[in-house]
Design brief:
about 525 residues, alpha+beta, OB fold (Dihydrolipoamide Acetyltransferase, E2P), Dihydrolipoamide Transferase, Chloramphenicol Acetyltransferase, 4-stranded antiparallel β-sheet, about 25% strand
């Protein structure tokens, strides 16, 4: 059965998108997770992946063309499948793409008809608020059922893999239903809420999966097909034979953790296994319940489980992928910081100027990257991408983990401009106000633990970067100058490199240039 894919909303303010390039052509085989196209939004150019497998049967928006969110982007289906009905008009699309659960219900009772969505009702799904977001968590609801909602009102705060963001409504009406309570998580495109005229009965939409697909299609024919195709499995409830009922996310989590779904007790409707069931499942608890009870009874607590946030999960996933796919190696130098310290004192005597040592490191790094473009690259299987500008990622520690806001075009900025940008982004990071666009597109990353007294450390590369610089503390120590032992101030820098793109000599030459800039700061002002 063919699936219609629409222009996605890739940012909270996106109204239209431009197809920068297609990575698949009509007739190509598409696997779930394959990148279909690069889409330019109002804030960034992002890769758009397929949530469906099959053959690319139709491209609705050619490369270079612009279309509004929810416009027909592509159709995926079986090789040779007739898609004329999908292209002739919206009603055919709605009928041709029932959700998987709807197909099951129709097969069991051919004469049954899915419940229609009442006029004016809108089904709101979990938005994709970043290019890497797969699951979202509702941090808080800013509206409750029964509240009036205006277009542009903030509905909820949603925690993504990168930040907690306010999510606004694109519709006006009354909040009729909340699909996820505060603290609950669900995959992108799961049912988040329903908005419509006050007093509208939406119970038919909540009683089973068949309702959402035709319902939304009646209001927005083209937009709904993709939403229904992705979100319907999340609310599926009918059992078929001896098949184990589980949500797609629960199945993926179980497969990743080696859990047999047959051993998991489902808490969803009709015993369906959901994400929470996988998170709570512990084989040890099944094998030795008496021992656990004995510990509890005796008041001895040996450990405590704390639910991983989306940020922690993504940090684990991405850094593990980087460490185990990119061949890391490390180079360390020790920099004489005497002149840098003196220069900073002079610079900061200027009115309204305050430059930190970190700002000086970032400026020197950006200049060194311009001289050594091999370090400012990204590895791809068939090619190495040389970035024409330095977009500097700056690692910032936050309460739940680590985020990397990006200073775009850092190679064009002066010391004070870099300092201002870092202060602004770090403040946003700690108050959870960073947008996904402010954390995208880095070409190189700097991580500084010197302010914590750490003298030397190594970092994991923030892919798709080719390298990351670890900055230690400035240390007062005896040094040899002109044959004499004197008191000096030094700082250690460690460069982690991806050996696929940066060879040892290249990394060493980059560090030599960086050292020269820091030991002679006047060269950064030329």
């Amino acid at each position: 059965m063919a699936v219609v894919i629409n222009m996605p909303r890739l940012s909270d303010t996106m109204e239209e998108g431009t197809v920068a390039s297609w990575l698949k052509k009509v007739g190509d085989t598409v696997k779930e997770g394959d990148i279909l196209a690069e889409i330019e939004t109002d804030k960034a150019t992002m890769e758009f992946e397929s949530f469906n497998a099959g053959t690319l049967l139709h491209i609705g928006i050619e490369a270079g063309k612009t279309a509004p969110v929810d416009a027909l982007l592509a159709i995926i289906g079986a090789p040779g499948e007739d898609i004329s009905a999908y292209l002739s008009g919206a009603p055919a699309v709605a009928e041709a793409i029932p959700a998987p659960a709807a197909e099951t219900a129709q097969a069991a009772a051919p004469s049954s008809t899915p419940a229609a969505v009442p006029q004016g009702v809108q089904i709101i799904t979990m938005p994709r608020l970043s290019d890497t977001m797969e699951v979202g968590t509702v941090a808080t609801w800013l509206k409750k059922v029964g509240d009036a909602v205006k277009e542009g009102d903030m509905l909820a705060e949603i925690e993504t893999d990168k930040a907690t963001m306010e999510f606004e409504s694109f519709y006006a009406g009354t909040l009729l239903h909340i699909g996820l309570q505060a603290g609950e998580s669900a995959p992108v495109d799961s049912v988040l809420a329903i908005i419509g005229p006050q007093g509208t009965d939406v119970s038919a939409l909540l009683s089973g999966a068949p309702a959402p697909a035709p319902a939304v299609a009646s209001a927005e024919p083209v937009a709904v097909a993709a939403t229904a195709a992705v979100s319907a499995p999340v609310v599926a409830s009918a059992a078929v034979g001896s098949r184990i009922l589980a949500s797609p996310l629960a199945k993926k989590m179980a497969a990743d953790q080696g859990i047999d779904l047959a051993l998991v007790q489902g808490s969803g409707e009709f015993g369906r296994i959901v994400k929470a069931d996988i998170e709570k499942y512990t084989p040890a608890a099944v094998a030795a319940p008496q021992a656990s009870a004995a510990h509890v009874a005796s008041g001895v607590a040996h450990s405590e489980g704390v639910k991983n946030s989306q940020m922690r999960k993504v940090i684990a996933k991405r850094l593990s992928a980087s460490k185990f796919t990119a061949p890391h190696y490390y180079l360390t130098i020790e920099v004489d910081m005497e002149e840098a310290m003196a220069s900073r004192v002079q610079i900061n005597t200027m009115p309204d100027t305050k430059v930190s040592f970190n700002d000086m490191v970032l400026k020197a790094t950006a200049m060194a990257l311009v001289k050594h473009p091999q370090v400012n690259t990204s590895w791809q299987d068939e090619q190495t991408i040389y970035h024409q500008h330095v977009h500097m990622g700056v690692a910032v520690a936050v309460e739940d983990g680590l985020v990397v806001p990006v200073i775009p075009f850092a190679d064009r900025l002066g010391l004070t401009q870099i300092g201002g940008a870092v202060k602004d982004l770090a403040g946003k990071a700690r108050s959870k106000k960073l947008t996904p666009q402010e954390m995208e597109g880095s070409t190189f990353t700097v991580s500084n633990l010197g302010m914590f007294g750490v003298q030397e450390f190594t970092s994991i590369i923030n892919q798709p970067n080719s390298a990351i610089l670890s900055v230690g503390a400035i240390v007062e120590k005896p040094v040899v100058k002109n044959g004499q032992i004197v008191v000096g101030h030094t700082m250690k820098l460690t460069l982690a490199c991806d050996h696929r793109t940066v060879d040892g000599a290249t990394g060493a030459q980059f560090l030599q240039t960086l050292q020269t800039y820091l030991e002679h700061p006047v060269t950064m002002l030329a």
